[in-house]
Amino acid sequence: MCEESGQHVPWTVVDNIGALVTNDPELGQGPLGVIRDAAVVLGDGFVQWVGPRARIPEGSAAIRHDLGGRAALPGFVDSHAHLVFAGDRTDEFAARMTGAPYEAGGIRTTIAATRNASDATLDRNTARLVAESLRSGTTTIESKSGYGQSVADELRSLEILERHTTEATLLAAHVTPPEYAGRTDDYVHMVIDEMIPACAPHASWIDVFCERGAFDLDQSRAVLRAGTAAGLVPRVHGNQLGYGPGVQLAVELHAASVDHVTHTTASDVDALAASNTVATLLPGADFSTRGKYPDARALLDAGVTVALAADCNPGTSYTTSIPFCITLAVREMAMSPDEAVWAATAGGAMALRRNDIGRITVGARADLIALDAPSHIHLAYRPGVPLVREIWKEGRLR
Ligand code: NIG
Ligand code: FE
């Protein structure tokens, strides 16, 4: 049965896949476990069988979908987004493109618009962005709250998110809201005493923006510790706009991920390499702020687990396109196409501590995308071309 519609969905054999990325090196070639001339059987929302098409089990499926030699891979896992907001920041973007710098304070513009919006508007905006991301191949998306910054507005952001994703994050400390101007410590106390207790039941993760102009090391640590005590797992926005303590704090608190990681020292890289914290790189934000890109090579060569995410938000990265981020990662960050595709699938899954997505193996969720191309490498080789042609999410063709 399909969870969402309640209708029975027949099993499907996706056949005649020219090159299938499984992300299981035991199943195929190289680190991506690529199987040539492959097939996958999807049933009851899960991968039931995967292997060379010459060995498809007899009678396993009612529907046969022939890819005609095109490539397929796991649906993208976008582990960093900010989808609940109203308004946009067109003027700020245009000013930046003619030389103005990006500053954390721009977030307050979106806080004002979000607080003024109705629940229905916020829900509609969120649904639109989730649908947009699905169209470009994202089958799992994390999203943060963070444009409310009051108990009531963060709570309703999370309640909206719960309708659209299983991966909701309380971004409790994004920027000090105007009513706490000059009193950031008071805001942090309010977050700890009131916001986290009210919001924790509606989220899986707690996040902070640990950056000059946002929250400092002690404030960030206090918020993340309170979140952990309430049962949430930490993630950190760190080292985006300059060097700072975000990476080290994430490692100290065993955060699932530290995101941006644009300005890093050698000791930041070493700390990450020795930790189980994923470094999530967000090249869409660096692109749209005309910032520098992270040193992905230093991270990868040191053995850090790297994820790629789109960071969809109205300020720094108004894109939901993971293929665009793969293109940037390859062209601007010297990641190989294989590394970028892995980071946007298996890497994203690791950043969300999920082992049921980001791979095509028996028992994994039946989240599979097919390209209008013979190889996953075309995602970087054909920039800007919408190559994602079929999308199965939980076994259902979308
Ligand atoms: O991931 N860095 C903090 N948060 C967002 C930007 C938020 C905004 O400018 O509205 C980010 O880039
Ligand atoms: Fe972000």
Properties at a glance:
single chain, 398 residues, alpha/beta, Urease, subunit C, domain 1, TIM Barrel, eight-stranded mixed β-sheet, eight-stranded parallel β-sheet, 13 helices, 16 strands, disordered N terminus, binds N-(iminomethyl)-L-glutamic acid, binds fe (iii) ion, HutI, Imidazolonepropionase
Structure characterization notes:
Pathway: Amino-acid degradation; L-histidine degradation into L-glutamate; N-formimidoyl-L-glutamate from L-histidine: step 3/3. Keywords: Cytoplasm, Histidine metabolism, Hydrolase, Iron, Metal-binding, Zinc. By secondary structure, the chain is of the alpha/beta class. It has 2 domains: 2-75 and 359-397, Urease, subunit C, domain 1, CATH 2.30.40; 77-351, Alpha-Beta Barrel (TIM Barrel), CATH 3.20.20. Helix content is 34%, strand content 21%. It contains 13 helices and 16 strands. It has helices at residues 90-97, 107-116, 119-135, 151-162, 184-199, 217-229, 246-252, 266-273, 283-288, 296-301, 322-333, 337-351, 378-381; strands at 12-20, 35-43, 46-52, 63-66, 71-74, 76-78, 138-144, 167-173, 205-210, 233-238, 257-260, 278-281, 306-308, 368-371, 388-393, 396-397. Strands 1, 2, 3, 4, 5, 14, 15 and 16 form an 8-stranded mixed sheet that branches. Strands 6-7-8-9-10-11-12-13 form an 8-stranded parallel sheet. The longest helix has 17 residues, at 119-135. The radius of gyration is 21 Å and the shape is globular. N-(iminomethyl)-L-glutamic acid (NIG) binds next to helix 2.
